[in-house]
Amino acid sequence: MRTPALHPFTRAGIIAAVGLGLSACGSVDRLANVGKAPNLSAIENPTTQPGYRPVQMPMPAPKPMTYHANSIWRTGSRAFFKDQRAQQVGDILTIRVRITDKANINNTTERKRTNGEGLDVEGFFGQEDRVNKLFAKGATGKGLVDLGSNSNSKGEGSVKRAEQLVTDIAAVVTQVLPNGNLVIEGKQEVRVNFEVRELIVAGVVRPEDIEAGNQIESTKIAEARIAYGGRGQITDVQQPRYGQQVLDILLPF
Question: pLDDT band for position 122 (50/70/90)?
Fold first, then answer.
């Protein structure tokens, strides 16, 4: 049985209703916080959050641990004395985030091309008269085919970017990989008036790169994920409305 097609106005009404329903979910929370500062997120275990997955990285072949008589050193040990640097799940270390990126790229491309081709049938093995009879009245084999082409293209591109982020954040060791590397994750929230600034740092670090003061540079974090943003009244004003975002996605123009 064929389902009857919906009228265009009916389809438009359904789309509008869905859009209003989606926007209402976020609007209710915003209306409940009118005149109030946004709430800070509760401190939670990152490994229990929806979507959390343990990190899996390529691991070297395991080496057996051996001990030697009359020796306090054991094969495979990374340090002679035990220190207080982060090394186990739940330990805390400080990450010095230093991001200073600058890029200035200029590209210029220019290309020119000119072609010309000509074909005459002036002397065709003594059979010029017969060949000329094949053409329209008044036409001859002279200048039978004359082709020409001219191409010219020019392109220019420029990219200029400058970013800088300097801050410190404490992170928690959430996982110890089989080769001893540490998976870390840290989140920081700072509320200023009615705006909350969020900083999230996650990645994999080597215990050897952790300094004596239990600190590490962000440049030494593998698979680094650093996010800095905010939420609140200022961020809401800077973002386009839900309807405008939907139209930007759907409209082909």
Answer: low
**30: phi then psi, degrees, rounded to nearest 5:** -70, -40
Question: pLDDT tens digit string along 199-242?
Answer: 999 999 999 999 988 999 999 999 999 998 888 888 888 878 87
Neighbour-count burial of 115, counting CB atoms closer than 10 A to its CB (0-12 exposed, 13-18 middle, 19+ buried): exposed
Six token digits for residue 73: 């050193």
Positive/negative CA dihedral, 75, 80, 85, 88 = positive
Q: Between vectors from CA 222 to CA 74 and to CA 219, what angle results, nearest 5°?
A: 105
Tell me the pairing of strands 182-192 and 145-176: antiparallel
